[in-house]
Design a protein that fits this description.
The complex is a heterodimer.
Chain A (H helix, E strand, L loop, with lengths): L6 H16 L5 H22 L4 H7 L2
Chain B lengths: L6 H15 L4 E12 L5 E9 L2 E10 L4 H12 L8 E11 L3 E9 L1 H21 L2 H4 L11 E6 L4 H11 L8 E6 L7 H12 L6 E5 L14 H8 L5 E4 L8 H5 L2 E3 L2 H116 L2 H6 L4 E3 L17 E5 L4 E5 L10 H4 L1
Parallel strand pairs in B: 3-5, 6-7, 6-8, 8-9, 9-10
Antiparallel strand pairs in B: 1-2, 1-4, 2-3, 4-5, 11-12, 12-13
The chains are: A mainly alpha, B alpha/beta.
């Protein structure tokens, strides 16, 4: 997660979390952890949209 | 005589032969290569002809101010296109030669249908060729990434549109980040197609998510380069999605047709990317909302259960509190009763003590009174006046002080003698110490 942030994967995980939280069978104790994880993913995704990714650029360029 | 001509004579002859040679008005096909309407109302222009990019004819022309507005309006309403340089037109002209201004054509009519047909025909042919070659679908098969980040802009650096695009894209309010590289190319004129093709070839090696062909404002001269067949092929065969923003409202260009997608303006081009990011942001917002709502629903159920528990506990507690209150009240009543008894005892005790005190004090005062009476009797007994009544006298000296001895008394002193009922003064004529001799006194 630190080195190469996979945006698509993060969004997929968020969708899975949403489904889990919506599922009444999910225990309340687990929901706390899921919400924490979703907050971290949302933050990372939003940052990703706003981050200049020059490291990758230099590898590819010229 | 003179073996030469004045220049004016020569040119007068030219004028004559020109007007003889071209007595009528002629319909002529030419490209408007320069165009300058003047403040005085006339319009000056050049008509030219090129063959394979090389100019083979060029002539000055003008439209008189009494023709120009109608002619321009007629052409533009018929073609949907501005009458300007770069357009191939069919015009009716009168050939004119002026000794000072030289050769020029006076334009007095124009055939818009010719221009439309000419362009449409050229375009149609090109499109047919491209379709036959399968070029139209090539770019459509390339997918733009969900979040295009690395972008190459092919444009002329000085174009105002590039600045607009750059600013709009990079200074977006949401803070989305992009990587932008500029590949310079000529965006108008005969050299433009080759220049753009070279830039495309260069940029497609740069690992970009998309290549953007941006005309970027300036004058709308000669857009025909974007209908160029070779450029169309280059765009179609580019392995990276190409997006065009050539910006011509009335018409589309072949470059637009073969590109992955096209927009009108530099701002619209920037919006294309910003919208993709905003859509992604919305996906995130929706997911967040879904998760929040689900959690809120779960917690809502929880809190109802908690509420009913709290109510039950409160009721139970109230009952217990009431019971305790009763006990406490009873105890308090008991305590109050006990206290009042105790208080009465204390009051009684205090009264008794006070009584005892009063009695003791009375006895003490009686004793004091009898002591006082005794002392009074003693004092009375020692009063000098009582002693005087018994026959004693008080003798006072010069200083009127009582004399208690003869020590300081001298013969001749005046002394006072006090009795109980009066006093007298006397003069000392003899002083004796020690035993008083009765006879001597007598």
């Amino acid at each position: 997660m630190e080195e190469k942030f996979d945006y698509a994967k993060a969004v997929k995980e968020l969708e899975e979390i949403a489904a889990k939280v919506e599922d009444p069978a999910t225990k309340l104790d687990d929901i706390d952890a899921l919400v924490g994880r979703s907050n971290a993913l949302l933050k990372a995704c939003r940052e990703y949209l706003r981050t200049v990714k020059e490291k990758i650029d230099k590898l590819d360029k010229e | 005589m003179k073996d030469y001509l004045e220049l004016s004579e020569l040119l007068a002859r030219v004028r004559e032969s020109v007007s003889d040679a071209f007595p009528e008005r002629y319909w002529v096909k030419g490209e408007i290569s320069s165009w300058s309407p003047r403040a005085n109302g006339h319009c000056y222009l050049n008509l030219s002809e090129s063959v394979k990019g090389k100019q083979v004819a060029d002539v000055r022309a003008m439209i008189w101010k009494w023709n120009f507005p109608q002619l321009k309006a007629f052409f533009e309403s018929e073609t949907g296109q501005t009458l300007q340089a770069g357009i191939t037109v069919l015009v009716r002209v009168q050939v004119n030669f002026d000794p000072v201004f030289g050769l020029s054509l006076f334009v007095d009519d124009i055939d818009p249908a010719f221009t439309v047909g000419e362009q449409a025909l050229a375009k149609k042919k090109a499109i047919e060729k491209l379709t036959a070659g399968g070029y139209l679908e090539m770019q459509q098969e390339l997918a733009l990434p969900a979040l295009p980040y690395r972008l190459a802009v092919i444009t002329s650096k000085t174009a105002a549109g590039y600045g607009d695009f750059r600013r709009h894209l990079l200074e977006n309010e949401a803070g989305y980040a992009f990587h932008l590289d500029l590949y310079e190319a000529l965006m108008q004129g005969e050299q433009a197609p080759a220049s753009i093709i070279a830039a495309l070839a260069d940029a497609q090696e740069g690992g970009y998510d998309a290549l953007l062909i941006l005309r970027g404002g300036g004058s709308e001269l000669d857009l025909s380069c974007f209908d160029d067949f070779d450029l169309a092929v280059a765009i179609a065969t580019c392995p990276v999605p190409v997006i065009t923003a050539i910006g011509h409202d009335r018409d589309f260009h072949i470059a637009d047709l073969v590109a992955n997608r096209y927009v009108k303006t530099p701002t619209a081009l920037a919006d294309l990317f910003l919208d993709m990011y905003a859509a992604e942001d919305e996906v995130l917002d929706d997911l967040e909302t879904r998760i929040r709502r689900a959690v809120a629903d779960r917690l809502g159920g929880m809190s109802q259960r908690v509420d009913s528990l709290v109510t039950r506990i409160r009721l139970g507690l109230q009952a217990r509190v009431h019971a305790h209150e009763r006990v406490v009240q009873e105890q308090a009543a008991g305590i109050r009763l006990g206290l009042s008894r105790k208080y009465a005892d204390l009051v009684r005790q205090a009264d008794a003590a006070a009584h005892r005190l009063r009695f003791a004090a009375g006895a003490r005062i009686g004793t004091e009174i009898s002591n006082l009476a005794l002392k009074e009797a003693l004092i009375k007994a020692s009063d000098p006046r009582n002693v005087l009544k018994l026959g004693y006298v008080l003798v006072t000296g010069r200083d009127n002080k009582v004399l208690k001895s003869v020590e300081r008394v001298s013969v001749g002193d005046r002394i006072g003698v006090r009795f109980s009922d009066g006093s007298l003064t006397a003069k000392v004529d003899q002083v004796y110490t020690e035993n008083i001799d009765k006879e001597n006194i007598a």
